[in-house]
Amino acid sequence: MVNPGFEPYLREARENPPPASWAITPAESRQAFRDEAMTLRGELSPMTSVTDHRLALEGRDLNSRLYVPVTDDRRALIIFFHGGSFVRGDLDTHDWLCRRLAHDTRTRLLAVDYRLAPEHPFPAGLNDAVDVIRLVSAHRGDFGEPAARVIIMGDSAGANLVAVAATEVRDDEPAVAAQVLIYPTLGPELVTDSAHRYGKGFLLDLDGLRYDYGQYLGEYGDHTDPRITPLLSTDLARVAPAVVVVAEFDPLRDEGVAYAGLLEHFGVAVELLEARGMIHGFLEMGAVVPDALEILDDLAAHVQRVGAGTAT
To answer: Is 49 a catalytic site residue?
Structure first.
């Protein structure tokens, strides 16, 4: 049973569905996503500081935002990549969640404003993720402790980028301590049982997600490329240990569970957190559905163990 706290939002979405992605411009889609995020956000978690930074990469600069919680364990640094189907999302849409994650994990968090499709199709966003991870890992002292353990984290499309980036940087030094994949999308085919069951009427509409994948891929049509579909990876050995979060009523649930199993097949340590009664995007709705915060707190405990180097 879906958590009752989501019912008003599901009912509204079913009775008054938003315009389809293909019926509006990317700018309009992004503004609607931003407006919804502002409507859902609650009280902001207190921070010692929140500062914006420019990350200088080869041929481009990216915006980022560093959250320093009031209680800072200083043992780790989270690099966070937001969701939004590769087309939407920015530093503001996930500001509430990033503050809460930093607060609950007692860990500094750097949110990254990577390039979006369709203006910047694949592999632009992925290249941004890989390059940011390498830049920040090499200059951790600019953001916190020079010896901090680096944790890479993303939700939905951002989790896709994190999963792929984790394979790209697996042999780098210093090594990434962990990857945290929050209700990840792991390819454009979307043929699992959960996709069929919950692909319409549960806020994440799969027709819209398929369209957004088309925007993200542009002229690149090889869905079997593991950089597009990590579920088709043939070698995940040595990638960072993973925490994978899936929601019971999320069309992406089954692929998240399958990817956790694939990681384990290659000898990667995995913790799978299954959120009962939850839907896709539930963490961003924690301010209006308090039960979601309990799961966020559980996730934070897992991340803290990783940051302290005590995860099993």
So the answer is: no
